[in-house]
Amino acid sequence: MLYKYLSFVSRQLIPRHSHSLDEGVSNDKSAANVIAPGLPPLFEAPSYESLPWRVSLYRLDALFSERSNDAVNTARNASTSNFDVGIENKNKTTVRQTVMARNQSKFERVALSSRRTSLFLFIAYRWTGQLAHNCERVLYRMAGLGVPMTVAMHRSLAVLLSHLSWVLMGTMILSIDLYPEFFGRNKLINQWVHFLTQFNIKEATAGLENCTVNTNSEWYTYEWNTSWVWWVVGGYLVSSWLFNVADMVNQILLPASVFRDASEGVVAQLISPENNDVWASIVGYVAPCLTAPIWEELLYRGFMLPTLCLFMPFWAAVVVSGLIFSAHHMSVTGFIPLMMLGMVWAILYAKCRNLMVTVLIHAMWNSRVVLGSWLGF
What we know:
Blueprint: H1 2-13, H2 29-32, H3 56-81, H4 87-144, H5 151-176, H6 187-198, H7 201-204, H8 228-253, H9 256-261, H10 266-271, H11 278-309, H12 314-328, H13 335-352, H14 355-375
C-alpha cells in the first residue's frame, strides 16, 4: 500500500523530463524520453531540469560543452579551409567556443567551491567537538560555584550548546565561502546570517517586514504553496516501513554481542533523564527535535546531495549521502537503518522538490521518539 501510495503521488506531481542523471546527456531527445516499462516515477533517475537544486545545471552545461567541443573544432577547421563558408560561420564558431569555455569555467568554480566548503565543514565539525568539551568544563565550574544544576540538566545543556556551536560554525561557512550563494537572496535568512557573522543586530533586524517566504538559492528549494502534506504523510510512512526492514537486516548481519555491549546513546539519556527531570527533558528536546532537523536537512539534502551530484550519478550520490548521514550519527548498532533513512529522504527530496518536506519528516521522526518516551510507549 505504501509503495502504491508514493508511486501514485509521484505520478501526479512529478513531470517527465529528459537528460537523466544516470543516463548521461544525449542529443537524441526522443531516446531520452523513453521510460522503462513498469518502472514507477518514484524510482526513476530524475533529470537535471527536474532536480530541486539548480547547481546541477552547471554540470549539464559543462557536459554539453565537452561533448560539443569536437564538433565545434571540426566546424572551425572546415570554415578555415573553405572560403565559401564565409567569415560569418567563423564568428559563430568563435562565439560557441566562448560560451562553452564560460560554462566549463562556471562548473569548475562551483566544483572547487563545494570541495573547499566540504573540507571546512569537516574541520569545523571536528573543532566543535573540542568546543563541546570546553562547554562541559564551564558547566562543571558553574555547578561548583553553586549554580543549581542536576546531572540530567548538565547533560542536556552540554548537548544543546555543542549542537548550537556546530550549527553556528556550519552556517557561517556555508554563507561565506560557497558559490553560488547558499542562502540565495532570501532577506530573512541573509539578515540573520549577517548578524551571526558580523554581530550587528541593528542591521540584522532591519527590513524584516519585507522578507520573502521562498528562497532563491541555487542549492535547494523549499516552499509552502505545494502539495507538501501528502509528501510528508506518505514519506513518513514509507520511512518507517523501510527503517524497520533495514533494522531487521541489521539484526541479522550484526552479532548479538554488538548490541549487548553497546552503551546507551546520548539521545536515550536525553529523553529518559535521571529522576524524570522534566526541565532537563525539555531542554534536551530542543536540539534533536527542533534545530537538528532544519540544520541536518540543509546540510545533507541542501548542500551535500547537490555537491555529490556534481561529481557522480544521482543514485550513487544518494548512497554516498546516506553513508555520510549515518556515519555522522556515530551509531554502530544503527548504522544500516540510519543509512536507509538518509537515502529515503534524499530520494523524497529529489522527487517532491521541497526541502520543507524532509525537514518536517525529520522533525516528526525525532519527536516521535521523545514523545513516546514522555508518554510511556
